[in-house]
Target: Cytosolic Fe-S cluster assembly factor NBP35
Amino acid sequence: KGPDPDLVGIVERMATVKHKILVLSGKGGVGKSTFSAQLSFALAEMDCQVGLLDIDICGPSIPKMLGLEGQDIHQSNLGWSPVYVESNLGVMSIGFMLPNPDDAVIWRGPRKNGLIKQFLKDVDWGEIDYLVVDAPPGTSDEHISIVQYLQATGIDGAIIVTTPQQVSLIDVRKEINFCKKVGVPILGVVENMSGLRQSLSDFRFVKPGDAGETDATEWALNYIKERAPELLTMVACSEVFDSSKGGAEKMCNEMGVPFLGKVPMDPQLCKAAEEGRSCFVDQKCSASAPALKSIVKKL
Ligand code: ADP
Model:
């Protein structure tokens, strides 16, 4: 049996991609796609040429998070052209191929693997510094295929995103063990939604009562402004999830993998993701953007 022609095609295509980073999570909803999107924005703002590949085939949220909903992929004689956010940030997702964003993608393993293979073989990224691959949660067929294909072309490693609670960390341990087993280097673990950080002026204040809550935001903010205005320049922090057992950092120490840092829960980051914006361009995400930036600098 000769070499797998698909694999040969992938290796050829990936020859123009300098670094490949896989973004993984044990569970869904922990902020993996948000991290992949903001990592790509950050690298692009550092003047790197970046490609973002979304292989979360059943739940592609990358088009929305990059502000590219409703866009189509074009084909040229060089292959499928990514959809560009900026001239140095191209995106590819199955989300661009679905006629209706509400359509469910109900595919079995082999078909998903086929598409992943095609994404790696046929997308014309051009010469790029980074390919960020947003994987589905867990460790399924898709993971085994993507790892197998990327390993053939050289992969820098995986970043694993988690939240601080034990229920999420248990699954991250599995993800770490998966990487160790298949030989993918772990660049590190990111603890996302690590406490809530929000400026007081973004809070809504309510007065609980027997007949329900009444809004007291205006009153509360005026009260603070008159008596302690410096409070309005501070950030209120709250441990939303239980991290009393040490969270991701302790787990990383136990498992001998790098800990990349914590990103707090920041309503402004959620808003930026919903609106498909970078969190780095203005000061709105002041609670989360610096943390994300420092993680990117460690890579
Ligand atoms: P996953 O890819 O792990 O399923 P998503 O990236 O889709 O998770 O994130 C789930 C939701 O949580 C999204 O609405 C996203 O905007 C929001 N989110 C993610 N990280 C944060 C954060 N640090 N602060 C606030 N909201 C966040």
